[in-house]
Amino acid sequence: MMLASALALISADISQANLRSILTHLGTYPNRNINTDYCTKAAEWIAGEYRKIPGMDVELMYYTVKQGRRVVEDREVVQVIATLKGQTDRRVLMGAHFDTINLTGDPRTAVAPGINDDGSGVAATLECARLMSQSKWKNTVVFVAFSGEEQGLLGSAALAARAKNEKWQIDALLNNDIVGGSQSGALKDKKRVRVFSEESDKHNSRELARWIEWNARGKVKGFSPWLVLRRDRFQRGGDHTSFNNAGFTGIRFTESIEALDHQHNETDTISGIDFSYLANVARVNLVSLQALANAGAAPTEVRYDPKQAHTTILRWKGTPGTRYVVYWRSSSSSVYEGALEVGESSEATIKNVNKDDHVFAVGAVGGVPISAN
Ligand SMILES: [Zn+2]
To answer: For residue range 305-356, what is the model confidence (pLDDT) as tens digits?
Structure first.
């Protein structure tokens, strides 16, 4: 598999055998519903897998849930946070929820293998962690196995609140939820993974999504991110939204054709996984993580020179030693159409691209761009 930029930093590739072995183990629990001890046991197993990775600092994070919607009684619940410390305290997060639900039966006893929703994301995250550990990074990379997603994003909300309280600097959260399948009946799509993002002035989710698409171009053979310009699928949600709501930049990856009949019941099994597809989603995450983990701090105060002209001039506040890239797209395009590296400069001139009909953003090399205004 082609992984042009990844090979420069990490010599190994995503292993389909590893993904399969993680999902095979997750399938041994009758369910991983937070109302059961299976959930706790699964968290302990996941933590154990992270502890096998050199350099990984592993935490079991406990939080309490109150009796309520889909929660049988007040309970202490656990989720897993594995941290690969970098040179800076700026953090890049990759996560997925390991809890499962069967909506047709008793939450404590109904069988809910949750292999695609969201064992697939848990496996991709663990496999990316294994590969990321093989190199040193500028920024800190955090791998999360969330719980309580199926009761209303409870675990991610608990971690986002804690991150805000502890003043974490989160450059990006990559949430992977239902990323292992490529087919539903006659519908197939092996070539794309959807990227859901939210437009907001409180965080930078939409620009992160655009950058992910740009950065992945040509790096994962025959496969690409497909931007969906909404926060999530129709009337459904995911853990990235907990972070967005707390003001952090995050997006959601989800397969492009979901097997809707095999969600939240006993039929979400390993037979629904297309391992070559899941490996490609993991590769998109990996090439994103590698760039983000090496990026300098984002520029601030990215401004257009106000003078009318067919050439666009931009200025921003930078950090010494950081190199920048200017990105642009026509105002009707959701993806970047051009980019120019400008070194350590804090000013750029883009010839014959007019700010009247184009939109610009500036980012540190490998980092999430900031929209100009
Ligand atoms: Zn899910």
So the answer is: 999 999 999 999 999 999 999 999 999 999 999 999 999 999 999 999 999 9
> Ligand 1 centre from 114 Cα, in Å?
8
Q: How far is the CA of 13 from the centre of ligand 1 (A)?
A: 26
Coil, helix or strand for 134? coil
Q: Please tell me the distance between residue 147's alpha carbon and the centre of ligand 1 in angstroms.
A: 10
Q: What is residue 102's DSSP assignment?
A: -
User: Who contacts 65 (Cβ-Cβ below 8 Å, separation ≥6)?
Assistant: 34, 71, 74, 75, 77, 148, 151, 154
Distances in whole angstroms, Cα of residue 359 to Cα of each of 13, 209, 227, 335: 36, 15, 17, 10
CA of 40 to the centre of ligand 1 (A): 18
CA of 34 to the centre of ligand 1 (A): 14
- pLDDT tens digits, one per residue of 141-198: 999 999 999 999 999 999 999 999 999 999 999 999 999 999 999 999 999 999 999 9
Answer yes or no: are the C-beta atoms of 314 and 327 closer than 8 Å. Answer: no
Distance, CA 302 to ligand 1 centroid (Å)?
36
Distance CA 265, CA 111 (A): 7
Per-residue pLDDT at 12: 78
Secondary structure of residue 192 in the 3-state scheme: strand
CA 235–ligand 1 middle distance (angstroms): 13
SS3 (DSSP) at 276: helix
Please state whether the predicted TM-score (pTM) of the whole model is above 0.85.
yes
Joined together, the tokens standing for residue 153 give 């994003």
Ligand 1 centre distance from Cα of residue 90 (Å): 27
Closest CA to 288 of 212, 364, 227: 212
Asked if the model's pLDDT at residue 11 lies above 70, the reply is: no
**What domains are defined for the chain?**
4-294 (3.40.630.10), 300-371 (2.60.40.10)
CA of 190 to the centre of ligand 1 (A): 20
DSSP for 221-262 reads TT-EEEEE-SSSSTT---HHHHHHHTT--EEEEEESS--GGG
For ligand 1, the distance from its centroid to the CA atom of residue 118, given in whole angstroms, is 5
